[in-house]
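Reminder to self: tokens first, then the designed residues, so the page reads top to bottom the way the pipeline ran.
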């Protein structure tokens, strides 16, 4: 508003060079300030539903003819109140001073300046409201996409478990019954848990422990597992069902093909401003992985690491969810440790509160 008043002052000084710049500035500031105050206060006289949305949650600019009416009234009041006010402040003894309302051109200038200023603030507010609406739409679309990916993962795990149950029913009914009980507990905990886009890492580890207990019924002593979650990382938010597909993949393609089974270790750690979670198994390794586990060149892997799998359904879903939430900073990489087996590494940025 101050900048607009200065511009108007320059213009009026060029038109009336006999009147000093400072006097012109006083007139411009008095008229401009009252115009602005009237228009700003007048916005709150209209019902919010008749105004454009405000990104800060305030009262937006009136729509259509209401905005034109508000600007016209504000400019007229500002001119016919601000002009005498400036004349009174300067004092009648100054020969250069005189009420600008004696000159119709002064009113035209005020109307033009008020219209330009109102249009600018109206356009800026409308653009900000539109940007906020676009951001909200994109955020809702991202959440919907994440929910879709999560709902695709849950039946995928369930179908695999039911297929294993079918085999056990024919070979070991007692273990099949125990596995069914564990599945019931797992589903109750899963469906009763949070359905938000993110949940604490501690809940993800709890869900993973339930799944491993379910798999232990089928594999018995062939499955050994270790979960390591530092206390300072327990509340870090992560997507639900982030680790279960990686553990399922390790069991299915790593441990099950081996007669002796093997061990799975899930380790969470902090690496600078990133959260790193390793899922390590002592299974058959990448060399014996199915042909569908092709590489994904988009993943940035550490030196000597093998590229991450793209063909496995669970791995694809994990990668998509990481990219949707974190962009290039959310990665999944598979590597073959020197001692054999496979290491799946998930990397994602820590929130600002945890990274500090």
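Designed residues (356 positions):
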């Amino acid at each position: 508003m101050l900048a607009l008043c200065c511009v108007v002052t320059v213009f009026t000084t060029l038109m009336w060079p006999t009147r000093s710049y400072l006097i012109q500035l006083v007139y411009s500031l008095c008229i401009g300030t009252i115009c602005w105050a009237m228009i700003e206060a007048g916005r709150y006289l209209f019902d919010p539903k008749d105004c454009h949305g405000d990104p800060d949650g305030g009262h937006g600019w009136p729509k259509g003819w209401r905005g034109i009416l508000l600007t016209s009234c504000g400019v007229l009041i500002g001119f016919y109140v601000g002009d005498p006010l400036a004349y009174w402040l300067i004092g009648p003894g100054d020969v250069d001073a005189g009420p600008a309302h004696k000159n119709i051109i002064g009113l035209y200038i005020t109307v033009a300046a008020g219209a330009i200023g109102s249009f600018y603030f109206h356009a800026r507010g409308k653009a900000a409201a539109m940007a906020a609406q676009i951001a909200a739409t994109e955020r809702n679309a991202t959440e919907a996409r994440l929910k879709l990916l999560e709902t695709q993962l849950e039946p995928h795990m369930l179908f695999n478990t039911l297929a294993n149950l079918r085999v056990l029913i024919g070979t070991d009914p007692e273990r099949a019954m125990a596995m069914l009980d564990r599945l019931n507990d797992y589903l109750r905990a899963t469906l009763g848990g949070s359905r938000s886009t993110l949940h604490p890492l501690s809940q993800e580890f709890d869900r993973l422990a339930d799944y491993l207990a379910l798999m232990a019924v089928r594999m018995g002593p062939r499955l050994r597992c270790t979960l390591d979650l530092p206390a300072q990382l327990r509340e870090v938010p992560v997507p639900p069902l982030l680790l279960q597909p990686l553990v399922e993949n390790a069991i299915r393609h790593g441990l099950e093909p081996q007669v002796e089974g093997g061990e799975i270790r899930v380790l969470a750690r902090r690496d600078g401003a990133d959260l790193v979670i390793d899922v390590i198994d002592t299974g058959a390794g990448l060399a014996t992985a199915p042909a569908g586990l092709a590489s994904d060149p988009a993943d940035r892997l550490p030196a000597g690491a093998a590229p991450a799998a793209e063909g496995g359904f669970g791995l694809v879903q994990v990668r998509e969810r990481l990219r949707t939430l974190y962009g290039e900073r959310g990665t999944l990489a598979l590597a073959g440790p020197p001692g054999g087996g496979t290491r799946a590494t998930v990397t994602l940025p820590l929130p600002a509160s945890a990274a500090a």
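The longest strand covers residues 262-271.
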